[in-house]
Amino acid sequence: MTDLLTRPAARRTSRRPVVEDRLNRRGSLEPREPGRPRRSLVVALVLACVTLMTLDHVNDGAAVDPLRRLVGEVYGPVESGVSGVVGPVVAVPHWLRSKHDLASDIDRLQDENDQLHSELAASDYERNRLQEYDDLTATAESIGQALVPARVIGIGPAQSFSRTVTIDAGARAGLAPDMTVVNGQGLVGRVLRVTSTTATVLLVVDADSTVGGRVGRSMKVGFLHGRGDLGDTARLDLELVDQTYVPAKGETVVTWGSQDGAPYVSGVPVGRVDSVFSSPRETTQRAVIDPFVDFSALDMVGVVVPSGTQSDRGLIEVDGGLR
């Protein structure tokens, strides 16, 4: 009896593995990996894509135009709103890069502008130096003397009560005391003392300076005395030997010259007659001379030396060449 009751149950239990095995073989009860779509869903999506592609090629896609319009009407405003919100945020990195690049460009342009200003200033300075050298060469030719070119590197202090300048040429360049100093405009002064590499020049406008001069075509001679002033107020007083001669305003005064050309060679332009004063009591004539040289802007000068002088720098010869 017990066997009869238990047999069906045992029979049923023994059939269950066979059914499960068959189902597993068919694939109905195979375990599916997480996140993997069912095979039927993939097949449905593929069929849908093929259908849409087919409809899109029929009558230039007229069958799917309503669907396109529907999707555009639904998602168009959403896309526009999202772009309006997200756009500025997305543009922040580009704005930061643009601002950094702009700042770099501004700095670069500022540096280039400063460099151009420096080059322009240097160009003006070099142009002025070249012009001064050309004028000095012309002076050498006009007075027929060889010159040692030099630059003014210092001005004597006002406390010394003398008007002097220091130049960067000395005994090594062939300089010695009582040599005439000129520039492209005319007479500057004379060498007062020298070292091996520098020299001190007494300017003709110094109150203790006396220079012999000749006036215009008359060749009347006199003595030029400085007043100690520089710049636009610099003037020289000319006392003529011939007290009866009255020079005309604008006449040119040149150096009279000294024995052996020391301290002044002859024929160097000094200035023009600015005005003439007469003294009835002393029956003398005194002319005020406006010098050609601007003593407040001295730069390049030339020291007159004998031809053939040995110098550590090039000489400006009479023919304008550099030896």
Give an account of the 3D structure:
By secondary structure, the protein is of the alpha+beta class. Among the domains are: 31 residues, no CATH class; 168 residues, Thrombin, subunit H (Beta Barrel). The strands form two sheets. A six-stranded antiparallel barrel has the order 1-2-5-4-3-12. A six-stranded antiparallel β-barrel has the order 6-7-8-11-10-9. The protein starts with a helix and ends in an 18-residue tail after the last strand.
Distance between the termini: 148 Å
How many DSSP E strands? 12
Rg, alpha carbons: 53 Å
Low-confidence segments, given as residue ranges, are: 9-14
Output the strand order for the largest sheet: 1-2-5-4-3-12
Q: If you average the pLDDT, what whole number results? A: 77
What is the CATH T-level topology of the domain at 138-305? Thrombin, subunit H
Layout of strands and helices, then pairs:
Blueprint: H1 2-26, H2 39-57, H3 65-143, E1 146-155, E2 164-167, E3 180-182, E4 187-194, E5 199-203, E6 210-215, E7 220-226, E8 236-240, E9 252-255, E10 269-279, E11 284-291, E12 300-305
Antiparallel strand pairs: 1-2, 1-12, 2-5, 3-4, 3-12, 4-5, 6-7, 6-9, 7-8, 8-11, 9-10, 10-11
Brief overview:
The longest helix is centred in the first third of the chain and has 79 residues. Helix content is 38%, strand content 24%. The protein is α+β, with helices and mostly antiparallel strands and 323 residues long.
